Amino acid sequence: MLTGMTELTLTWSDVEAASRVLIATATHRAKRGEPLWTPTGLTPERLSRHYPAQGWRVAWQGGQAVATYVLLDADTLFWPDDLPGVARYLHKLGVHPDAQGQGLSARMLEDAVQQTHRKKCSWLRLDTAANRPKLRALYENAGFRRVDEVEVKGLRVVRYELPIMSG
């Protein structure tokens, strides 16, 4: 358990560490009866097929990878009508089960906002399954606005956006 440790180090491009966090998260959720992702789809090889290595952000505490997300410059699957450069797109936000309850999801979302601001984009956008009230509440409590609910490849998702202030 990593409770009490608040010092975070953030790194880019470590798909292996991101995979470990996501697999642990998915396995933990499945054991609780709340399946989120299929662990076999979270291997470094599978993640590398769908997401660029440079988009992965990993948070470390005490030498252990504890949280991750991937930030994309485009998301034509979930946001097909967006113009290039308008937004960044967050996917695969996960917190290792041993580090949950420390506010790391919120800290990772704050980091994604900062990274989006640095790229001078107006929006941080994401999607989540429509049947995930806890995840939806996390994003809404972080200030994301519900845009709409759409079906993408047979999955009902709610799309969210957060305006990024420039200046």
Automatic annotation (TrEMBL):
Taxonomic superkingdom: Bacteria
Entry-linked Pfam families: Acetyltransf_10
GO molecular function: acyltransferase activity, transferring groups other than amino-acyl groups
Record's keyword annotation contains Magnesium: no
Keyword Acyltransferase: yes
Keyword terms, alphabetized: Acyltransferase, Transferase
CDD domains with a match to the protein in the record: NAT_SF (cd04301)
Record InterPro entries: Acyl_CoA_acyltransferase, Bact_Acetyltransf, GNAT_dom
N-acetyltransferase domain segment(s): 5-165
PANTHER family: ACETYLTRANSFERASE (PTHR43877:SF1), AMINOALKYLPHOSPHONATE N-ACETYLTRANSFERASE-RELATED-RELATED (PTHR43877)
Protein name: Acetyltransferases
